[in-house]
Amino acid sequence: MTGSRRVALVTGAGRGIGRATAIALSAAGSPVVLAARSVDELDSAVDEIAAAGGDVAAIECDLTDRAQSTTLVERAAGLLGPIDILVNNAGIGSSADPRPLADFRDEFWDETLELNLTAPYLLSKAALPHMREQRWGRIVTVASINGRVPSPFSGAYVASKHGVIGLMRVLAVEHAGEGITVNCVNPGPVHTQVNDKRIAFDAERLGKDPVEYERGLTPIGGRLEPEDIAPMIVYLASDEARMITGQAYNVDGGVNMA
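-> structure tokens emitted (258 positions)
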């Protein structure tokens, strides 16, 4: 990553895509603030980044709590300086409570939209003043291929991911002339704890062997790893990506070639 010192805030950074992204951003030269709910996972990620010589800090934060979403950016800035790069990665998947929309729990709908859509809204809103002041900023939101195509038994998840892509495109239009870019990355099936549960649910639902089912999830074969997603996020956060905004890039092993 070229340019001056660019401070990054990564949510959901304790494990999976968020952790891989925080490590990759640090390796590219960014001081990184990690935010997540699990202290043990945060401590482990911080230790790994610090051992490699990275400038890193961490904040325990539950983004289902709107008050915490509202204050996270300022808390992060107080640790390492104004936020130049925001990676909205924290989220909840359908595997927490998969069911048809007719039987959907309203509480799970609210929780999913709070974390997957409202938290990125609040965090982006809070980070924008930092970025506008210096006329440089990068907002990268981890959406999903389900922001393009539906999946059964996941109404809230699909709605939230369609919604967050639209929201980020509004931000991209509104701030395009200010040195701020706003983009999404749409992962396909990634080897994470959340996706493990969804794989097990779908394999049982479809009467398939879980191992064989996983092998056929992508045209390339199998699932992606978190480290397959991070390079795209790092690129979109770089100086070199200055002319890319309002986009939603699939990184999905060929699942959705649109």
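The first helix runs from residue 16 to 27.
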